[in-house]
Structure to design on (417 residues):
């Protein structure tokens, strides 16, 4: 399937560079000499950056690597709140603590450890700008607002910022879950199924906050909110939404295991889990909003063998990865999670050259049985051999297939149609 091509951006890319210590004083000039014709506004003051984001539209902000972590975290939070469409990057890399690495991996789109590799920087930024235009295009935003403007409970923003900035916070999590009894009851139900994994039984909010880490609960909170916002139609029979959730729990755990095996940093392993948990929520959205049309699309797949994303694109003009990513990016998730959800069926459309959370989710999704299958058509991704070649992962696939064996057993008896 060819890449979706949003309308071209005819305006020059506008960039703001925060460089308090003058480490990159000639960076913008060297960028232009390398042939990149961006408009770069260089500043040395934190508040000026926020004020600029208030008064002008910038495509991206670049931060010098030598900013203090506490200031960087606060700045990125404010920038994300003030200008959610603006991409966030760091120039350069230094020795960093685990907290510093966590902030960087949760809040930045990319870190460029070679600040003078201008072709790579330009290519990465322009790719992400295309992704941004894709996710904010009008027809897609109209779909995800079918149930009204996206509204979050008051606790959501603080919760997801806390993950990036202060790590696990049991008191904050307890407040979140106690404020919504129906939501916490749904989460407790899921974590007590074998699909969630092996752990002691959970009987209440206190158990949840003691036994399940904050990042996992973050994903479960999003999933539970979407599950009740997009319920199955009363006459829906092709597959169970609950079984779709159960499979997503397994994909999440398998994606985490694969990322661990690939020796990703723990933050990226948890992002693999989060993306795996949420990767198929777009299916739930489409089947809930348009049950007859989605049923007819699946029935058409029975007659004409085709990939799920192609069938969805033909029927709706977009596929479930786009819908899920466009919806979930409003929930303060890390950029890499949004990308993994968006491209999990079509990883070659990403700019990956190495293992990322997308790699883990794509492979996990292809290795587990679908909740719906008819003939040669099924509701899951197909393994992309070109992507495995590009990211140099072929040699490891046999290990990951072995990891999937345990999880596959939970889905073998699942009804398919």
């Amino acid at each position: 399937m060819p890449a979706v091509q949003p309308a071209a951006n005819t305006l020059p890319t506008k960039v703001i560079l925060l460089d308090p210590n003058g480490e990159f004083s000639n960076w913008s000039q060297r960028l232009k000499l390398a042939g990149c014709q961006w408009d770069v506004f260089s500043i040395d003051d934190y508040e000026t950056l926020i004020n600029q984001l208030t008064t002008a539209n910038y495509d991206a902000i670049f931060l010098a690597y030598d900013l203090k972590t506490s200031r960087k975290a606060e700045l990125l939070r404010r920038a994300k709140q003030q200008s959610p469409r603006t991409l966030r990057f760091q120039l350069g890399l230094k020795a960093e603590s685990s907290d510093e690495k966590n902030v960087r991996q949760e809040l930045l789109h990319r870190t460029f450890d070679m600040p003078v590799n201008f072709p790579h920087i330009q290519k990465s930024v322009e790719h992400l700008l295309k992704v941004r235009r894709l996710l904010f295009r009008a027809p897609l935003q109209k779909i995800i607002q079918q149930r009204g403007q996206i509204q979050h409970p008051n606790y959501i923003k603080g919760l997801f910022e806390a993950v990036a900035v202060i790590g696990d916070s049991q008191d904050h999590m307890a407040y979140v879950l106690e404020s919504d009894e129906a939501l916490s009851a749904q989460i407790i139900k899921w974590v007590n199924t074998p699909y969630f994994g092996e752990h002691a039984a959970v009987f209440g909010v206190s158990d949840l906050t003691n036994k399940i880490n904050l990042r996992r609960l973050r994903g479960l909170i999003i999933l539970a909110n979407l599950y009740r916002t997009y319920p199955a139609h009363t006459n829906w029979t092709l597959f169970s939404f609950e079984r779709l959730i159960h499979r997503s729990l397994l994909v999440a755990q398998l994606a985490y295991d694969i990322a661990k095996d690939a020796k990703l940093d723990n933050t990226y392993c948890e992002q693999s889990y989060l993306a795996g948990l949420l990767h198929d929520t777009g299916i739930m959205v489409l089947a809930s909003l348009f049950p007859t049309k989605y049923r007819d699309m699946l029935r058409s797949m029975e007659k004409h063998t085709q990939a799920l994303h192609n069938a969805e694109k033909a029927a709706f003009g977009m596929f479930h990865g786009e819908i899920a990513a466009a919806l979930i990016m409003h929930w303060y998730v890390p950029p890499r999670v949004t990308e993994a959800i968006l491209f999990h069926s079509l990883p070659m459309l990403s700019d990956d050259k190495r293992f990322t959370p997308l790699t883990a989710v794509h492979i996990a999704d292809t290795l587990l049985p679908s909740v719906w299958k008819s003939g040669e058509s099924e509701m899951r991704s197909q393994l992309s051999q070109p992507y495995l070649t590009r990211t140099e992962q072929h040699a490891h696939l046999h290990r990951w297939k072995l990891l999937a064996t345990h999880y596959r057993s939970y889905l073998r008896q699942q009804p398919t149609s």
Summary: The radius of gyration is 21 Å. The first strand starts at residue 14 and ends at 18. Residues 66 and 283 are 43 Å apart (CA to CA). Strands lie at 14-18, 39-43, 60-64, 87-91, 110-112, 373-374, 377-378.
